[in-house]
Amino acid sequence: MRIGVDAMGGDFAPAGVVKGALDAEGLLGDDDKIVLIGDESAIREHLAEADGHERFIRIEHAGEVIGMDESPVEALRQKPGSSIAKMATLAAAGELDAIISAGNTGACVAAAQMRLRRLRGVHRPGIAIITPTYAGPVIMCDVGANVNCRPEHLYQYGLMSAEYSRCICGIAEPRVALLSIGSEDAKGNQLVKETRELFKNDPEVKFVGNVEGSDMFHGACDVVVTEGFVGNVALKLMEGLAEGLFKSTYLELTRLNPDLASQFEHAITTIREKYDFNEYGGAPLLGVNGICIICHGASQARGITNAIGVTLDFAETHINDRITERLGRRRQSGDDS
Amino acid sequence: MRIGVDAMGGDFAPAGVVKGALDAEGLLGDDDKIVLIGDESAIREHLAEADGHERFIRIEHAGEVIGMDESPVEALRQKPGSSIAKMATLAAAGELDAIISAGNTGACVAAAQMRLRRLRGVHRPGIAIITPTYAGPVIMCDVGANVNCRPEHLYQYGLMSAEYSRCICGIAEPRVALLSIGSEDAKGNQLVKETRELFKNDPEVKFVGNVEGSDMFHGACDVVVTEGFVGNVALKLMEGLAEGLFKSTYLELTRLNPDLASQFEHAITTIREKYDFNEYGGAPLLGVNGICIICHGASQARGITNAIGVTLDFAETHINDRITERLGRRRQSGDDS
């Protein structure tokens, strides 16, 4: 497959992205190619010392870059020659089979929606992240693609994420939950209450009801559904708190016993890695008619390499076909418009 | 002052609540009394072995209890003799100066709103928690009192929480931020965008703009404002993640070096305590015309004792007078209806 990678996206672009692409060589099959999209001379500079990269990497020049803080839709309109816009256009023209970006998330989501369009039957695409917990991985969707959510959007996030969980986490019957402020029916806001009914009326979903934020860390569910605003706040909160706790733990250990603390730096590093977004590589934008993997803006080379791995897994397990089939079955049963 | 404590509220009631009240003796002044509200015989049983408790504790019998999972408004209507309903009624009649409950949060909020009413000028009360971070305490409001939020509610949460921060955290000019999904003006949902304008138009607020979940752990602000659904999800997520990380850290340390791991149990315990809600005791429902302190449902005796401490501090620093004055000043400037 031909995997487009936005060479200009993220805090460590282009150097980190190019290195991540080079490091992905071992993951690729004979027919797989990486297409780096961005400023050609900058990319060439970082490729210079890598012998034989021509076997699996080629460059598509894009002269503009959408900044992390630009307004997505406006930036796409003003910069048709940006790496994100160009990448999406190439994918829409059938010249790329997948796209990856650690750049402006909103712009990437908007470009993918506009160019790739949605899978048949999908109302809104959603970004699905895998959250590590000691009880196993939990998929959370959506974490920021859509902040104007209707109940049917959330319901479809549940169906799509369940397919993702089956394919990527190997869970045969994923337990789907709604993120809320109490497990009782009466709790939550209007959006949660209406979505709950949609899940309850679908016997094919293993719906386990509402969960609170804490429950998802204790093995209560395999998929947790939420609207993009809440999901994004939750994602960033988890990152910040984990980082803060690791910092506090290390400082406290150092204060109590400086000699021994250093021995435990390794232990903390091990756990930290489990919670490191670079380890997970990237999160798919579920529901677009193609493969779009969104990386963390602070992705380093390892994050990009792993995102290429995620892309290959995503393609190999035919998740999009499964989603289309699942939504089609639902449509035929006449319960979803 | 006369502090009403719901003896039947929370996972460890009545034993834990009664013990928490007994342990609070040292915090009380000569004129301070604790009034335990709940099943008299059950309370007496737990008081039996405590000599001299009559000096500072008395009992008000309430024969009913509102369960943690009951629908708040309905439960209050059906159980006028419940500890929460009775406590709020006594406060409204001027027989209690403050109320504390670790019971059904929704019922406690509803009872306080209905009986104590709101402070002059306040649109909606909000629950304000203190979140510990290595950069200092951050106040988050609202964490669950109000899930149908309008911009002016959020704006007032900012004003009220700033007063709380001044009084309790000793911060002269608290930096107020809005919890969102990106720091740029263009990001966030409609509620955030409209609230942002209200803050920007008030020169008396030290408004530092939008923050993401991670920023609040890195010293970006002293007060973070959010609507009740998001705030409650965030609160529970923080609890669950912290617990999960401590568990993972301990398991990893044990795996790497079982002998040394035990030495670090103490260090982990120390950090854990900093993040333990029992340490903070309780969160005020800011904006009610009285003092209402909401405790975590899993509060143990120590949590209740500390909540009594919070109550005394809240009264001593005259936070409600400051809130009323602040909102009055705002009203006079003609910018708030």
What can be said about this structure in brief?
The structure is a homodimer of 337-residue chains. By secondary structure, chain A is an alpha/beta fold. Chain A has helices spanning 15-23, 40-47, 72-78, 83-92, 105-116, 151-169, 190-200, 228-256, 258-274, 277-280, 301-316, 319-332, and strands spanning 2-6, 33-38, 57-61, 98-101, 126-131, 138-141, 175-179, 206-211, 223-225, 283-286, 292-294.
Explain this structure to me?
The structure is a homodimer of 337-residue chains. With 337 residues, the first copy, chain A, is an alpha/beta fold. The first copy, chain A, has 2 domains: 1-121 and 287-315, Isopropylmalate Dehydrogenase (3-Layer(aba) Sandwich); 123-281, 3-Layer(aba) Sandwich (Isopropylmalate Dehydrogenase), CATH 3.40.718.10. In chain A, 46% of the residues lie in helices and 15% in strands. Chain A contains 12 helices and 11 strands. An 11-stranded mixed beta sheet of chain A has the order 3-2-1-4-11-10-5-6-9-7-8, sandwiched between helices. In chain A, strand 2, helix 2 and strand 3 form a beta-alpha-beta unit. The mean pLDDT of chain A is 92.
How is the secondary structure organized here?
The structure is a homodimer of 337-residue chains.
Chain A: E1 2-6, H1 15-23, E2 33-38, H2 40-47, E3 57-61, H3 72-78, H4 83-92, E4 98-101, H5 105-116, E5 126-131, E6 138-141, H6 151-169, E7 175-179, H7 190-200, E8 206-211, E9 223-225, H8 228-256, H9 258-274, H10 277-280, E10 283-286, E11 292-294, H11 301-316, H12 319-332
Parallel strand pairs in A: 1-2, 1-4, 2-3, 4-11, 6-9, 7-8, 7-9
Antiparallel strand pairs in A: 5-6, 5-10, 10-11
Helix pairs in contact in A: 1-2, 1-11, 3-5, 4-5, 6-7, 6-12, 8-9
